[in-house]
Amino acid sequence: xxxxxxxxxxxxxxxxxIIALAEEIIADRAKFSQACRGKKLATLxxxxxxxxxxxxxxxMLELGGQVIGFSDAASSSVSKGETVAxxxxxxxxxxxxxxxxxxxxxxxxxxxQYAGIPVINAGDGSxxxxxxxxxxxxxxxxxxxxxxxxxxxxxxxxKFGRTVHSLIKALSRYQGIKIFLISPQELRLPDYMLxxxxxxxxxxxxxxxxxxxxxxxxxxxxxxxxxxxxFLDQEEFDRVKDSFVLDPEKLKTARKEMIVLHxxxxxxxxxxxxxxxxxxxxxRQVENGKFVRMALILTLLGWAGENRPFERTPVFxxxxxxxxxxxxxxxxxxxxxxxxxxxxxxxxxxxxxAYCETIL
Length: 360
Ligand code: CP
Known about the structure:
- The protein is 33% helix and 16% strand.
- The chain has 12 helices and 12 strands.
- The chain has helices at residues 12-27, 51-62, 84-91, 107-114, 130-144, 162-171, 191-198, 211-214, 234-240, 248-251, 282-304, 333-336; strands at 40-45, 66-70, 97-102, 119-124, 150-155, 177-182, 204-208, 220-223, 259-261, 321-322, 342-345, 351-353.
- The strands form 3 sheets. Strands 7-6-5-8-9 form a 5-stranded parallel sheet.
- Strand 5, helix 6 and strand 6 form a beta-alpha-beta unit.
- The radius of gyration is 20 Å and the shape is globular.
- Bound molecules: phosphoric acid mono(formamide)ester.
């Protein structure tokens, strides 16, 4: 059974195939209008969403399938204390594929161990957002014509920004990628990411504190929102919330062919005056999200057909270290639910929590 929990669950070749299928769908939508007839997608959203949930819904409907689910954990039996594992055991009786967003990091991984149907991570806490990554890759491919030899600036909240984490991981597998990390000290990338990037990922990267330092070199500027909901301390949020604002003045030193991406929603980090600049690609990016999710649903359902349902649970998709040390990340699912304690040893020999990647 194949799931999409982390962007690297797909090989570079498989990622390319999904992007190519999305481009085929864009070219001939009618051809795919009955491709998922008789299939159901369950959208289990424990956290707010506009783009991801509705683009999954729209994607399944355009494929001729149907959609069930909830958009608020309070309206489901989760509010009575039901675990992720039990919830997906139930959902598998009603649907063929699951898209799950959860505030706990690693929740979709737990779901994949119990569901018996493909599980897609639609964003877990501050950890990962692999379908946004597919959206970003399709957008880059369509806008720039390639996925290699690119200089990309990630700006804003790199600490809690799950879209940033997933896109950097995905890009680390392409040639000639140079990255500028533009953030205040408080919102630097998490240690596990910096460690992985330093330990021979092939990425060239540099940390800077101002947009101006990076702007003239960029092919892509990836702006992010400082996420109020992730801060435990209001004062800390107030200190960093207005760190970076992209406006027409700052764009003056950018290349004519640079593009501006943003996973959205935005608050104030991109001035409205930028929206009409042809380099502003963030609303084109949103539409790509629907097409790439259509391609992903088709691909995972196709692969699922080759598998038999689980007979025993939990099922681990890879050889984890079982009964590893406890995770110290309060946002990790392993801290709040009764799940197997799992670790993953990286190529660098370092042990990370299998659910949220915190270094153990
Ligand atoms: N980009 C993204 O995940 O947006 P939503 O939170 O609206 O789904």
